[in-house]
Amino acid sequence: MRLQRSEWIVVISLLLLSFIPCVGGTIRLIEVSLGASFQFLPHKPMISAAPIPVQVHLATAIPYCVFGIVQFLPSVRQRHPKLHRVLGRGLALAGIASVLSALWMTHFYVYPVEDQSNLLYAVRLTVGFSMLGCFYLGVTHAMKKSIGRHRAWMIRAYALGQGAGSQSLIGILWVLMAGEINGSPRDFVMTAGWVINALVAEGIIRKMGLNAPDREPFQLGPMPSKMTELD
Hints:
mainly alpha
């Protein structure tokens, strides 16, 4: 499939944004699946105690972030509408599973204070339930054939789902400039990643005019059977 230059920019940008969390997530997924025989990332006792939520989260979030890029390419939507619909349904289910597993981990895992404060706990819950709401509204508008608003809500959902990518980039900059990132700085970095993504998404939605009510298709009225005569 031949993509336009603007589409390649979207693909490359989102792949780069996804790179660090997807690579790290893949390594973590392999660790959890193989157990103590493979250990590369820092050990997390709560993951060892309950590995299934992490496995579900990573096995769904990684495909959602990577293959979700395809859904934003106009050439795919226009030339392969069936693929867009089928892939969209699968990605929506993957996204919902990743959110539900993330909410479970947020609430039930016992995190060290430096990994999750009360503030970050509240932010994670807010983002998770907001993303679920985006999926619900996106699917609802798709069923109503309100395509503009469907796209707007799916863009919002994807932006929140890509929070880990922005958090990784901000975190790297923070470490380079200020060193250690724990406690309040970590809360700031995590929250900033979601906020920045949400703001960018709203800017894209506004620029594309997706919040505007969908126009009704133009239809010709019934043709008169004969011309009326002027008095």
